[in-house]
Amino acid sequence: VGPYVLVTPNETRRKQLQQIAKKELDDLEQWKKEHRPGPITLVPQRLGGNKSEAQVRQNQQMVLMQSKYRKKHKREEYVKAKKAAEEAEILKKKAVQREKAERLEVKKRQEEMQRREMLLEDQKYKTNELLNRLDVVLPKSDSCQIANPGPESTAWKRSHAYKQALREDENRRLEEMKQEQQRKAELMEFKQKQEEETRTRAHQNEQRSCFQSLFIFYCTLRVNNAFLDRLQNKTQPNNIYQPGYTG
Q1: What distance in Å separates the CA atoms of residue 23 and residue 29, rounded to the nearest whole number?
Q2: Statement: the pTM of the whole predicted model exceeds 0.85
Q3: 127 Cβ contact list (under 8 Å, min separation 6)
Q4: Is the distance from CB of 166 to CB of 127 less than 8 angstroms?
């Protein structure tokens, strides 16, 4: 412990504090004596006892039953509110899904319309390209060409050439379909022949195995019969001269 300084207490200051504290305590006690409550004076009156015990018990039972009913009613109201909130949430989700489906349907319709428009434009472009190509080819190959053809004959030639090209394209597709059907029919016939040959071969193998089994059984039977005959021939002379033999 380091060095320290010892301060002597001030006795005068201590006495003054003690006197002040004692004076405050005396004042408190004097105040308590002065403000002590006096005697209580009440008007006499009848306290309770205006109902019988049975009525009190009945009232308590009624209050308890009402409390139970109130709790049950609150519980039912809570369940109904919860169910209504869940149904509202489900309806909201259904509405959102319906809206999404409607938007998707509108989008599909728009895409379908765009696709059709693009298809029509492509078809028009191909038709014009075909007509332009026919305009280049027809004057060179047509031997009965008019010297100064008019716009009506040119349009008729274009339409005729376009119809002819469509007819040739349709005939070509029909021919391809016929060839495809013919190839499928030939392939089906070839498969049927293979299946028939396989079944015939399996039937022949089965018959051959059956015949082999019968032949082996027949040979075994003949060998067994020959063995029994030889055995009987060996034992028969001795049995002729046995007593009681009748032939």
Answers
A1: 10
A2: no
A3: 162
A4: no
The whole-number average pLDDT for the span 30-51 is: 81
Q: Which residues contact 11 (CB under 8 A, 6 or more apart)?
A: none
Q: Are 154 and 132 in contact (CB under 8 A)?
A: no
Cα–Cα distance, 87 to 80 (Å, whole number): 10
Question: 3-state DSSP call for residue 51?
Answer: coil
CA distance linking residue 170 with residue 175, whole number of Å: 9
According to the model, what pLDDT value does residue 206 have? 84
Compute the distance between CA of residue 111 and CA of residue 117 in angstroms, rounded to an integer: 10
Supply the DSSP symbol for 244.
Answer: T
**CA count, 13 A, side-chain hemisphere, 7:** 3
CA–CA distance from 232 to each of 222, 235, 239 (Å)? 15, 5, 10
Q: Is 149 left (phi over 0), alpha (psi -120 to 50) or beta?
A: beta
* CB-CB contact of 114 with 107 (8 Å): no
The pair of structure tokens assigned to 234 is 């060996």
Q: What is the rounded distance in angstroms from the CA atom of residue 200 to the CA atom of residue 203?
A: 5
Nearest to 31 by CA among 19, 23, 41: 23
Per-residue pLDDT at 208: 85
Q: Please, how many CA atoms are within 13 Å of residue 205, restricted to the half-sphere of its CB? A: 6
